[in-house]
Design a protein that fits this description.
With 473 residues, the chain is an alpha+beta fold. The protein is built from 15 helices and 9 strands. It folds into 2 domains: 285 residues, no CATH class; 153 residues, Alpha-Beta Plaits (2-Layer Sandwich). Helix content is 63%, strand content 9%. Strand 6 and strand 7 form a beta hairpin. Bound molecules: guanosine-5'-triphosphate. Its cofactor is Mg(2+).
Length: 473
């Protein structure tokens, strides 16, 4: 769960004070938006507190629930003359908060589905309906003495407000800790501009249908932007629509301003619309995550965690577009562990696997950001440096040979030493694609690797590099 300085199991006093402050601040915010008699246009407190309780599960105990409840009662006691009615009104707030929090946590414990939200988007929608209905039941009864309205309009207002605010705010707060915001470019801004244009059209054209105008643009956002950003845009759009409708700037009815029961339908419609971009965004994120996972599986070797054969070709294709032909100096170093079969035969396959993985880590560290390191198969690896001089590539090859020779490979209380043979091929790859150059260089590097094995192993062979040994008989 997210670490937080102000809310942590280890600091109960700080957590209690923080929770009290959050409750009071959002209570103040909601109370400031009361436009229709005692009812608030938005009541964000319940959704915000439900998100806090979901994100910090240790808060879900009677003490912290009671603390929030007390903060609400105290605020009402100081700022209103509701008297004992405040007890039931704020109890209804707690009903929403606790219901949503417990339902989401129950689903989190049971869920096997990987979702960018802690729960399925549709479940969140259903939980908000259920919690809003429960909350409205108590809230409507509690506010009857204060507002002097009948039960049904009060119930409708409580329900539609809690439901719409929950559906708009909760996804935003639950997906917040994922800070990969989209890159700012004009093209990236089009979906956002689309939302603004649709909102202007809603105001200009009016009518109940105008509430749905921003939907296509929101879905466009959902396909382009990360989930937290989509949730935020949906929240802002939904809240703006509610404010515009409440003030008859978007006219959905002949009489103005709208009465409480007329807001019921508008709020429900806006909340229902908000579900669509959320569902699309969650689906897009899930598909993208699966694609990333699948391509990572193909492009990285499972045992050694370095690039695979397909991964190195993918890199070459991508880099071909980025690297100007005049800057290309392609060094290809093929590496093959010496007498690796002996290790497998003597110490077993597990030991061989461990040494392969450690060998890859040692070499990867030496290569660093100078090039790409990939496992081509078995105990054969390749290093590709797309912009390296021949002299530097020879130096790198020698460094790797030495580092591997010096390294102590530990396996079950035994220290193993291994060596590696290397074949280097280098070319200034001015015209052809990097991939074509690489294929040609591989043949030459393979020839030099064969030479290194022939001349006694544990050495680098390349053009103009003196060999260390004589050919094995
Ligand atoms: N443990 C383990 N062994 C592997 C893996 N892939 C290939 N090998 C083994 O690597 C060994 C390669 O042996 P050879 O090709 O004969 O080469 P060598 O014994 O290294 O000898 P030289 O290359 O001539 O120095 C074989 O025994 C393969 O079974 C792997 O993923 N894990």
């Amino acid at each position: 769960m997210a670490k937080n300085r102000f809310l942590s199991r280890e600091k109960p006093l700080t957590s209690a004070v923080s929770l009290f402050v959050i409750t009071t601040v959002f209570y103040f915010f909601g109370a400031s938006l009361r436009v229709v008699e005692a009812l608030s246009l938005f009541w964000p407190l319940n959704a915000v507190l439900a998100a806090v309780f979901i994100r910090y599960p240790f808060l879900n105990n009677p003490f912290y629930y009671a603390l929030c409840y007390a903060a609400m009662i105290i605020y009402d006691g100081v700022t209103t003359s509701w008297g004992t009615a405040s007890l039931l009104i704020n109890f209804s707030n707690m009903v929403f908060i606790i219901t949503v929090s417990l339902l989401v946590q129950r689903e989190k414990r049971r869920s096997t589905i990987a979702s960018p939200l802690p729960v399925h988007a549709l479940s969140l929608f259903n939980y908000c309906i259920f919690a809003a209905a429960l909350c409205a039941l108590f809230g409507a009864v509690g506010s009857m003495p204060v507002d002097r309205h009948a039960f049904y309009p009060l119930f409708a207002d409580w329900f539609s407000e809690q439901f719409s605010t929950g559906v708009l705010i909760l996804p935003c707060l639950l997906s917040m800790a994922r800070p990969q915001w989209p890159r700012l470019s004009l093209e990236n801004l089009y979906p956002l501009l689309g939302v603004v244009v649709c909102m202007v059209a809603s105001v200009g054209i009016g009518g109940a249908g105008s509430l749905a105008f921003p939907l296509p643009a929101l879905i466009w956002c959902a396909t382009r932007y990360p989930l937290p950003f989509v949730c935020l845009i949906t929240l802002i759009t939904g809240m703006t629509e509610i404010v515009l409708v409440a003030n008859s700037i978007i006219e959905i009815h002949m009489t103005s301003p709208l009465y409480v029961n007329q807001m019921f339908s508008a709020r429900l419609g806006i909340a229902t619309i908000a579900l669509c971009p959320l569902m699309v965004s969650v689906s897009v994120e899930t598909i993208n995550a699966l694609v990333r996972k699948a391509s990572r599986r193909a492009d990285y070797d499972y045992l050694t965690q370095v690039l695979s054969r397909s991964g190195i070709y993918e890199k070459l294709r991508n880099e071909s577009d980025c690297l100007a032909p005049s800057n290309r100096q392609l060094a290809v170093i093929l590496l093959d562990i010496d007498h690796f079969k002996n290790i497998n035969d003597t110490w077993g396959h597990d030991c061989g696997d461990k040494i392969l993985a450690e060998f890859a880590a040692v070499v990867n560290k030496v290569v660093g950001d100078k090039g790409w390191f990939a496992r081509m198969g078995g105990e054969e690896f390749v290093i590709v440096c797309p912009a390296m001089s021949n002299a530097d590539a020879i130096l790198l090859g020698h460094q790797i040979r030495e580092r591997v020779e010096q390294h102590q490979f530990a396996w079950k209380n035994h220290i193993h030493h291994i060596t590696v043979s290397l074949g280097l091929s280098w070319t200034a790859c001015a015209s052809a694609s990097l991939e074509a150059c690489f294929n040609a260089q591989m043949t030459e590097a393979d020839r030099y690797l064969y030479q290194a094995k022939q001349y006694g192993r544990n050495q680098l062979c390349a053009q103009n590099v003196p060999v260390m040994g004589r050919a094995a008989s």
